[in-house]
Structure to design on (209 residues):
């Protein structure tokens, strides 16, 4: 589901952005996951592939083959790996293009810039893990779920199946058969109006009334 209003969900625009992406953007898009050993060592999940990295093909015709990257061909969205070649009809040998998503990096070519990138990514991942689960408290979730304002509201009983929350005793309903009405406790008027328009009284189970 699209959550950022500044990003289009149009298929046409997504494809155009992909195939007309500049080289600097293609570098990032042509990333590959690190092997389990490197992931444990650097606390980084993936890195942009570059020349002289050692990779292993994990999918496709050449699955299981390993070698050093001899070229990152950004124009065609592929990488060339040593010893993964084919013969042309005229007898010449050419490299076979492999999509970076089909390989894992087994050995990184490290230099000053690559080390700084690994450090930045590791710090960002550590900060994200530290804050994980602290964005919303249990009280916030309960308050948003029930839209509780601490008062009762009467709603006419509908003839179709009515959706209600699981916690019947605390929040949801008691049926007044005298005038065919549902009594909701602890729910705001605005929320009930929305529920009435959408014919939805909860998200967990339903009862036939």
């Amino acid at each position: 589901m699209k959550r950022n209003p500044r990003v289009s969900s149009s298929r046409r625009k997504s494809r155009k952005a992909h195939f007309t992406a500049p080289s600097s953007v293609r570098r990032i898009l042509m990333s590959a996951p690190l092997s389990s050993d490197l992931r444990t060592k650097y606390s980084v999940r993936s890195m942009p592939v570059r020349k002289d990295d050692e990779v292993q093909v994990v999918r496709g015709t050449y699955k299981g083959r390993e070698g050093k990257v001899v070229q990152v061909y950004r124009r065609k969205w592929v990488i060339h790996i040593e010893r993964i070649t084919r013969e042309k009809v005229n007898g010449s040998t050419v490299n076979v293009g492999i999509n970076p998503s089909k390989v894992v990096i087994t050995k990184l070519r490290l230099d000053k810039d690559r080390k700084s990138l690994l450090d930045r990514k590791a710090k960002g991942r550590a900060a994200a893990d530290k804050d994980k689960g602290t964005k919303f408290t249990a009280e916030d979730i309960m308050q948003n779920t029930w839209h509780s304002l601490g008062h009762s509201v009467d709603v006419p009983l509908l003839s179709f199946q009515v959706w209600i929350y699981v916690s019947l005793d605390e929040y949801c309903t008691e049926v007044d058969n005298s005038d065919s009405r549902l009594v909701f406790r602890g729910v705001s008027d605005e929320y009930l109006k929305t529920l009435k328009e959408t014919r939805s009284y909860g998200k967990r189970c339903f009862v036939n009334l």
In short: The longest helix spans residues 112-131. DSSP finds seven helices and twelve strands in the chain.
